[in-house]
Design brief:
mainly beta; binds calcium ion; four-stranded antiparallel sheet
Amino acid sequence: MAKAFAVLAMTLGAAACGDRGAGENTATYADSRDANAPHQSPAFAGQYRAPLREASVPFDVVTVARGLDTPWGVAFLPDGRILVTEVAGRLRIVSPTGELSAPVAGLPVVDARGQGGLLGLAIDPGFATNHLIYWSYAEPRGGGQNNTAVARGALVDGVAPKVDGVEVIFHQGPSLGSQAHFGGRLVFARDGTLFVTMGDRSITPGRMQAQRLDGLLGKIARINRDGSVPADNPFVGQTGVRPEIWSYGHRNVQAAALHPATGELWESEHGTRGGDEVNVARKGLDYGWPTIAYGIEYSGGAITGNITARDGMEQPRYYWDPNIAPSGMTFYTGQLFPAWRNSLFIGALAGTSLVRLTLDGDRVVGEERLLRDRGERIRDVVQGPDGALYLLTDSNEGQLLKLTPKTS
Ligand SMILES: [Ca+2]
């Protein structure tokens, strides 16, 4: 192993950081738990266990809405109302004062077993005139099979809200009989194309397709608003390759956001035990899963070839061991919390906290865990038009929370 790491470190042109076990000052890291894979070394300094950097910003946690049954995605309409998905298949409109609408009618049936259900949301950049919204979901395909899908429709307001003209614009293929790893975040790029994050479906037949370009398992896709393929996607025109693919080698991407300065797509994905990652998902690149990975199998033991780096495969910008289980992310750009500007916020499920990463370019230089005292799984985080941070708690008694500057 030592020889393999030395060769890989040279190949990468990056100095290995050495054994992070002995001598590490864990008191300066945000997580005091032991690593699952202490034998592994990061590929570059700062890729792992960034120093604890607490901004010590005082804030209040305000409950905007409660009584949400396992909410998953949250998005703001231009008028300040809030859309929230509940995994069982219900889409709710939340007023600024916290009233929940009746479920929005007209959505396709979802497969809500396991990690499936109604998932992510995006609002059309032209919503003010076309009223189009987009949602991702686990799509039942018969015989217990399913896949991630994306639909869109025009939101029609009223006492009984509905979506009109619904079209399913994207189907992940192939379908598999699995109830896990649906990905599900939707992010509009600046050019108006739509990124769709997906997973490898967890089971071995899916995992082994994350490196294959003839299917959409373990990929991030980029599509036009009508579901067609942008002509400048990286694999357009190649025989036997799905042209929707933007990047590949992903395990399960449940967090994604555009960097406010560069416009690039950042994502955070679930690894195995000790391998959650932050990546900058760039055009046509391979993010390694399952050939390279940090951490170990959940069942114990090494992943695939037990290597963490290989030529031609991208290193994560950052990884966690032990896991946080990342879901939902946003770059903070608002005025309410100047000390948090340009931080990357990520919801943590297993980590039951809100992770704040301090960045220097595409390097993570500090980490802080907020809301730890509440002990809640955080499923999504977005910045509201008022500059507050809005969070969903992952629970069958879920809440929409808002962080605002402390008033007393
Ligand atoms: Ca990776």
